[in-house]
Each structure stands twice: as C-alpha cells, then as structure tokens.
Amino acid sequence: MDAPPPLLQIEGLTRTYGRRIGCKDVSFSLWPGEILGVVGESGSGKSTLLNCLSAKLEPTAGRVLYTDRHGRAIDVWAASEPERRMLMRTDWGIVHQNPRDGLRMGVSAGANIGERLMAVGERHYGGIRREAETWMRRVEMDLDRIDDAPFTFSGGMQQRLQIARNLVSKPRLVFMDEPTGGLDVSVQARLLDLLRGLVTDLGLSAVIVTHDLAVTRLLAHRMIVMRRGEVVEAGLTDQVLDDPQHPYTQLLVSSILHP
I want to staple 113 with a disulfide (CB 3.0 to 4.6 A). Which of 96, 132, 152, 248 is the partner? Predict the structure, then answer.
C-alpha cells in the first residue's frame, strides 16, 4: 500500500521585505497527525514563516502545497482568494498568541464557538449550542459563562475559548503562534496539558511557533530551528534538544539550562 502524501509540503519558501529577509529557502514536509515546532529568537523569521504557511502573507518565492480531504494537492498561493478563505474556515485553524486576535469580543462565548460551525454548514441552533457546550467542557470552561462576552474572561480563559472556536469544526491542520505566550506560568502549564491532550485525542496536525523550548519538547514530534530567516537545524524534537549540532541551537538550549 502506498504511503499517504504529506499533509503540508513546503518548497523553497522565501519572503523578503525589500532588502530584508523574512525567511529564506525553507523546505519541509508535515505528515498527518504530526506536530512540528518552529523555534528561534525574536526576529528569526518564524512568525513570517507561519504567516506564509497560513495564507496571511504571500511569499516572494516558493510553494505551499496542502493535501485536502479528497487527496488533492492544492498550491495555496496559486489558489483563488475564495479557495483560501474556505480552507481557513474548514480544514485549518489558527490560534493566535493574543486571543483577542482570534475571537469576536462583542459576541458571547457560545456564539464564538458556534460561528465556526455555521461556517461549515451547521444551521440547527439547538445542535450548535450543544456542541458549543461540549467544547466549553473539553477546554475546561464553566458552562455558566456560555452567554458571557470574551472581554469578561481572563487571558487564560480567552485562550481556551479561542482553542475551542478553532477545534470545534474538526480542522485537519492548526497553526499556533506562541499559544501560551503572555500567560502566567501556572496558567501556561495547565493550558499546555490541555493542548497536549486535545492534539492527541483528535489526531491533529499542527505547526507551533514558539521561543519556548519547553513548549516544543512537550508538544512537538519534530522541530526546526530558525536564525536570520533560515533553518539551521531540523530533526526529531528530543534528538535536537538533547544533542544539538548547530552552534546557534547549542546556544539556545544552553540558555534554557543555564539562564
């Protein structure tokens, strides 16, 4: 039996801003059910890369190929704008570092979750509300808050709501940008445990951008290390973190062990 194709295939992805390099000649494949961590210091190009992958920022060169539910390889940046929007509503999810960027702050928690279901064709109000309740339980939110607006929640609860909003429609691929950034350490730990359980239970594929190597070790099967827009090291997460080969990666790991 032939092996399934990669879910996401990146070929020579480059993005420049005039003479400045955002990311340069990045290539990798992401397989179904795999979590890839993208790490590096601020300015390393990881956020530029994520924006190019998630159809928010058009690359200067290279291709982003996505294998859809029917086995078709879609060249994301050769597709039409409506096709890209449909991918983002159905097959993909995006979890922002600041949950306010991924939520509608003026509507209720339940409506935030329900909107994603309506985008994929759900129309029965009772069914949508029940599914919203189910997902509030899954992300350990109080059901009594289902009709409250997100601006009344703490940062950690807003992030849980954003995760529920993204995962309720069962996307195949989720992009996460510093999903625990800006939260208290204790809140980070609980949210990471929650995320780890969800990605395992749902068999999600994900690309997680973070500067936190502990997040990468906990969640990612493989990782790439970026510096000045280029990938300087890639491999299995434990292998890279336990035996880093590139001097930059060694420095990153050392700074965690000996801050």
Answer: 132
Widest CA span in the chain: 56
Q: How would you write the pLDDT of the chain (259 residues) with one tens digit per residue?
A: 567 789 999 999 999 999 899 999 999 999 999 999 999 998 899 999 999 999 999 999 999 999 998 889 999 999 999 999 888 888 999 999 999 999 999 999 999 999 988 887 777 888 899 999 999 999 999 999 999 999 999 999 999 999 999 999 889 999 999 988 877 877 888 888 888 888 888 888 999 999 889 889 989 999 999 999 999 999 999 999 999 999 999 999 987 755 4
Torsions phi, psi for 153 (to 5 deg): -95, 160
Residue 65: CB atoms within 10 A of its CB come to 18
